[in-house]
Write a structure and sequence with these properties.
The chain is mostly helical. Strand 3 and strand 4 form a beta hairpin. About 55% of the residues lie in helices and about 10% in strands. It is elongated. Strands 1-2 form a two-stranded antiparallel sheet. A two-stranded antiparallel sheet has the order 3-4. The two termini are about 35 Å apart.
Length: about 140
């Protein structure tokens, strides 16, 4: 499975927004905080906006907020918003994949891999990731 830079950047930007949901963030602030190329992030945030995962406001008081509560946004939502299909084979969906002869069972394996990945990503919300970051920070500080 390939995780695109676009999906990684989208998730990192959304986590920045989820960290302080009461105030808007600019693309510049998210890009700087996460060390993401600004121009690339700008296009990714546009896709997230079109998918309803972020909302925006123009002006000096403007910026971006989460489009839904962080506990309702999963990594699967984010991946599908920016990349479409979770797993493809040569750019095609696995849904209609069919092989003849001894390879006939292989498409079912690929679909199981996709279902497993979807289950993992669908079970992780922005809120749960923020909690892990706090836990890891406490563990790290405690070890020092």
């Amino acid at each position: 499975m390939h995780i695109s830079a676009k999906a990684d950047y989208a998730m990192r930007a959304l986590l920045e927004l989820a960290r302080e949901p009461s105030r808007p963030l600019t693309c510049e602030a998210m890009a700087s905080s996460q060390e993401i190329p600004f121009r690339f992030l700008k296009s990714v945030v546009g896709e997230l906006r079109r998918a309803g995962l972020v909302r925006s406001q123009r002006g000096c008081e403007g910026g971006y907020w989460l489009g839904r509560p962080a506990e309702e946004i999963t990594l699967l939502d984010v991946t599908r918003a920016v990349d479409g299909e979770l797993i493809t084979l040569r750019g095609e969906s696995l849904a209609g994949l069919d092989y003849p002869g001894p390879a006939a069972g292989l498409p079912d394996v690929w679909r199981e891999v996709e279902a497993g990945a979807a289950a993992v990503l669908g079970g992780v919300t922005l809120t749960s990731l923020l909690g892990k970051g706090v836990e890891q920070g406490l563990t790290h500080r405690g070890a020092a």
